[in-house]
Amino acid sequence: MPVMNLVTNVPVDSVVISDILKDATKAVARIIGKPESYVMILLNGGVPISLGGIEEPAAYGELTSIGGLGPSVNGKLSAAIADILETKLSISRSRFYIKFFDVERSFFGFNGSTF
C-alpha cells in the first residue's frame, strides 16, 4: 500500500505518464519490498512550481507507507525516483524534493476500513 504522489511543473503527455507510472511502481515495490499490486503512484504535471525563485523544471514527491521506510531505503527511493524524473522529464536531481511518511496501520484507510 505504498502511495507516492508526484507533482511537477513539466507538462506531461499520456505516453510519458504511463512510462513514469510503470517505472515508479516497479522501483517503489522493489526497494520497499512490497508487491507491485499494493503500490499506487499519482502524477500531476503542469503545476506551477518555483524552487529558489526559479520556475525551471522541478518536482516534489511524497511517499507514504506502512513500514518499509528508513534512512537507507529512503535514500534508495530518492535516487530511483530522481533517476526516473531526470530521464523521462529532464528534471535535474537538484530540483526534486521528496518527503517520506512511515505511518501506522490505523492511519491508512482501505476498503472502507483501516489496515
Automatic annotation (TrEMBL):
Reactions catalysed, as given in the entry: 3-phenylpyruvate = enol-phenylpyruvate; L-dopachrome = 5,6-dihydroxyindole-2-carboxylate
UniProt entry tagged with the keyword rRNA processing: no
InterPro entries: Macrophage_inhib_fac, Tautomerase/MIF_sf
UniProt keyword terms in alphabetical order: Cytokine, Isomerase, Secreted
Keyword Isomerase included in the entry's annotation: yes
GO cellular component terms given for this protein: cytoplasm; extracellular space; nucleus
EC number: 5.3.2.1, 5.3.3.12
GO molecular function: cytokine activity; dopachrome isomerase activity; phenylpyruvate tautomerase activity
Sequence similarity: Belongs to the MIF family.
Subcellular location: Secreted
Name of the molecule in the record: L-dopachrome isomerase
Main localization, broad class: secreted
